[in-house]
Amino acid sequence: MTTQPLIAEVVSIGDELLHAGLIDTNSAYLAGQLEQLGIVVQRFTVVGDDPEQLQEAIASACRRADLVVATGGLGPTLDDRTREVVAAALGEPLRFDALSWQEILEWFARFKRPVPDSNRRQAELPQSATALSNSSGTAPGFRVRLHDAELFVLPGVPREMKVMLNEHVLPFVQQLGGLIPTAQACLRVLGPSEALLGERLQQFMQPGRNPLVGITASGGMLSVRLIGTANTKAEAAALCEQTAKELRPLLREWLFAEGLQTVPELVLAALAADKRTIAFAESCTGGLCAARLTDLPGSSAVLQGGIVAYSNAAKHELLGVADDLLEQHGAVSEPVAQAMAEGACQRFLADCAVATTGIAGPSGGSKSKPVGTVCFALATRNPSGSIDAKAWTVRIPDLGRTFVRDRAVFEVWRALLQ
């Protein structure tokens, strides 16, 4: 391939990103969207609101990259300084953009809210900048040429940033030259440690390989991501699929899902395709399964409901788990998990139901049931109306309460995708 890749950098702005106030999620999202178009994202920078450091971060990125996307610092308060800093880097004054101000006024009118005088600051842009309308908020963005880069400045609010990325940045990028046809694939894995998986796949993870193969970890799930480049997108996709064919036998029983969608999206799509409804009976996961499904549009077509039955009394009263079952086996047991799933399936008239009950820690474990012991059950309604159920136990590594609960949710998704 003779085409030189287009290089991009992302700059995330705000003191709150440096002082444990917020986590920078914008950078990863932006990189993922840009990489799908064939842009090479080579650096993330997180910088606070200090004018000197902010100007240096933006100017340096614009000297290195062809495209820079900066997010944050476009609010109405005095600590929102991105407009002024970019103008200073350009050596030009700010101008008041009447059209942007009109859009701000219309936004407030739509929600019948008064317009604070401070919001006028949001209609100020560097003299040579092109305003970018914001249909989801009051902060217009802007585009300007700085040093060797095309600089897009977007709001830091993720919802607004995503809308403006789709409306302004991606259409602009698609018209540029230097885009390398790129395809991606993703294999989702549960079971091994990251080190063990890396050892098994090390021959595929050499630098410079096409497609590139990398491993990321999140909540106990490992994702094997493939990024291929070629003369056409179809050829790049074929490279990814060929490598995926070689990886599947190595992953064996660890592999439980494939696709670029999130795992909850894959689960929702599978349930919808099979026209199955589902209910949840959750103890240690505390409603996480139902919550992550209802985060998605379209979940109402498959989710009947869920019950968080944390205490034994709740398990008995809300799900019909027999008291003698709880006394004989304990709340964290396969018989209780199975009774919970059956109870949820019956009460919500669902096609299937999943139950979780376990010890998330940090206390509550015993020699026979250490922290990380989680029992699961899947109940399925037959065409005759009867319910079959199976239960199983997973010993999740005790890497903290959040890890145990997140890993348990992924186990639920695995059961629903099998």
Stated plainly, the CATH topology of the largest domain is called Molybdenum Cofactor Biosythetic Enzyme, Chain A
Radius of gyration: 26 Å
Q: pLDDT below 50 for ≥5 consecutive residues: which ranges?
A: none
Q: Tell me the number of structural domains.
A: 3
Quaternary state of the chains: single chain
Number of helices: 13
What CATH first level of the largest domain would be assigned?
A: Alpha Beta
N to C succession of SSEs: EHEHEHEHEEEEHEHEEHEHEHEHHHEEEH
Helix content: 25-40%
Computed structural class = alpha/beta
CATH homology-level superfamily of the largest domain: MoaB/Mog-like domain
- For the residues shown, what is the average pLDDT? 95
Task: Report the portion of residues in β strands.
Answer: 25-35%
Question: What is the rounded distance between the termini?
Answer: 40 Å
The spatial strand order of the largest sheet comes to 2-1-3-8-7-6
Largest sheet: 6 strands, mixed
How many beta-strand elements?
17
Task: Describe the 3D structure.
This protein is of the alpha/beta class and 418 residues long. The protein folds into 3 domains: 7-174, Molybdenum Cofactor Biosythetic Enzyme, Chain A, CATH 3.40.980; 182-258, Alpha-Beta Plaits (2-Layer Sandwich), CATH 3.30.70.2860; 263-417, Maf protein (Alpha-Beta Complex), CATH 3.90.950. The protein is 37% helix and 25% strand. The chain is built from 13 helices and 17 strands. A 6-stranded mixed beta sheet has the order 2-1-3-8-7-6, sandwiched between helices. Helix 1 (26-36) runs parallel beside helix 5, helix 2 (51-64) packs across helix 3 (82-90) and helix 8 (263-273) packs parallel to helix 13. The radius of gyration is 26 Å and the shape is globular. The mean pLDDT is 95.
